Each structure stands twice: as C-alpha cells, then as structure tokens.
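User: Could you go from structure to sequence for me? I need the amino acid at each position, not a summary. Structure tokens:
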C-alpha cells in the first residue's frame, strides 16, 4: 500500500497552525487555574469574615472562634436540613441494586446522572446513560429539580458537588449520588454549594468518608454535618459575589472547550488532507 505525505513545507505549516492553537489552550488553562486560585481565596474570606450589606467584607477582628473553626459574626452552626424543602424527601441516595441495573439502560429516554457527571461546581453532561419513560416513572422520587444539590458519595470523588440546572430538570440520579432538595425560600442554593467548599465542612467530610468499610459518605453523615449558616440576606449577597466570579470562570471554561474542539477538527481536516493546508 502506498502512503502519501504532505510536502515538507505543508508539514511545517500544519505544525505552526497546531502549535498556535496549543498555545491558546495553554494560556486559557493557566487563566482558569488563576481564577480557581482567586476563588479559593475569596471563599476563605467569605466564610471567615462574611459580607456587610454594602457588599464589603467584615473586619476579620469581628469574626468569632468556634470549636469548628472561624465563623463570621452573626452566623451560626446548623444542620443542612434547615436549608431543605420540607415538601420533598430532603436528602436522598439514588436507587440501588435491582431498582436500577444495566439492563434498564436504553439508547434514548430520560437521562441518569452518574458520579462522573458531578464535577466540582458544575455538571459534565457529555457522557449520559438513559432509561425508558416507563422506567423513569417508577423511579420518580429520584428525579432532580433545578437548584438541587448533587453530592458525589463514594470513592476518590467523595465530596464533589454541584447544583442542578435547568438542563437536568427531570433527570434521575444513580446510587453513587446523594440529592439534597434545597428550599430556595429558606436558603440560597449557591451559598449552600459554596458551604461544602468551606474549611469547616471539608474537614468533616474528609474525617467521615473513611469511617465505613468503603470510602464514602452516607445520608446520615451528610445530615449530621455541622454546617455554617448565614442569615438569608447575607447568603444571597454572597451568592451574588460568587455568581459574578463564576461567570468569568465559566466563560474561560467554554473558551477552553471551544479551542479543544477546534484543535480536534483541525487535526482531522489537515492531517487527512480533507482540507488543503493554507498557503
């Protein structure tokens, strides 16, 4: 079989094109890492100092020390249950065993969210499984609503969590996810999600996840967490700050996804000769 290769000058042009897009990818990745570092510092300040009505951080000297850690003045340690919807089962693990098996999955239908779909602070919907509408009706109690908190409960990903958005409205969860039904009148879901990244909560999750025979967290442990709670008005102020920061980071993440798709498309087009190398 005879193979054809692009000329040396064409090869050099292909290398130049792909190198330029690799450079753009590296710069965008570095920008995202910078945003993540900024957010980590912001989170520490928000959950140790709190936010005044004018949007400014409280002086650190106004914070109080508790057995769980530093807490802004006016906050308290409470239970996650205080933020949940009393009209729904507040904290629920997905279906187990025969309730949802591999035989139930079909090519299209109602999506089932798995542990890999729950990333830290966002959902990755690129790899979904589906069940039939009939099967979904039998598992209706496991359906997700926008604003629910989804918590990865097992393995190395334990503690990873994200809020459900409108894209996953009506989707199901599997056994490796805990769904927390948040009441938007009693709390700000964005604040509660951020609370799981606070030092007070992270220390408890790290402590509790190794206590069973398998690494993970169950609903009782999640319910028992000592959770930092701000007054509802302050929760919403903090949520607004985090949303503003999040929009900037999400824009960079979308740009990174676009660049990676562009690179893949260019490699397929240029290396197969489907598209001629520009002169």
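Assistant: Here is the amino acid at each position, in order:
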């Amino acid at each position: 079989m005879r193979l054809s290769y692009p000329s040396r000058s064409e090869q050099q042009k292909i290398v130049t094109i792909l190198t330029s897009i690799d450079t753009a990818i590296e710069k965008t990745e570095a920008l995202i890492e910078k945003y993540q570092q900024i957010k980590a510092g912001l989170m520490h300040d928000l959950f140790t100092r709190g936010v005044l009505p004018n949007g400014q951080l409280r002086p650190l000297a106004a914070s109080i020390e508790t057995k769980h850690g530093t807490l802004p003045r006016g906050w308290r340690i409470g239970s996650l249950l205080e933020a949940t919807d009393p009209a729904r089962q507040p904290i629920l693990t997905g279906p187990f065993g025969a309730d949802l098996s591999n035989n139930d999955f079909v090519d299209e239908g109602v999506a089932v969210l798995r542990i890999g779909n729950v990333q830290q602070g966002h959902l990755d919907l690129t790899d979904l499984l589906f069940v039939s509408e009939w099967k979904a009706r039998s598992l209706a109690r496991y359906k997700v609503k926008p604003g629910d908190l989804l918590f990865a409960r097992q393995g190395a990903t334990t503690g990873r969590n994200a809020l459900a958005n409108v894209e996953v409205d009506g989707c199901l969860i599997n056994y490796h996810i805990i769904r927390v039904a948040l009441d938007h009148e009693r709390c700000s879901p964005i604040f509660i999600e951020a609370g799981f990244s606070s030092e007070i909560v992270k220390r408890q999750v790290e402590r509790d996840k190794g206590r069973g025979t398998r690494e993970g967290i169950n609903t009782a442990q999640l319910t028992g967490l000592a959770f930092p709670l701000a007054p509802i008005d302050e929760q919403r102020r903090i949520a607004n700050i985090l949303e503003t920061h999040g929009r900037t980071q999400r824009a960079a993440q979308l740009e990174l996804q676009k660049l990676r798709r562009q690179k893949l498309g260019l490699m397929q087009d240029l290396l197969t000769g489907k598209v001629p190398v520009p002169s």
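One structural detail worth keeping in mind: The first helix runs from residue 8 to 49.
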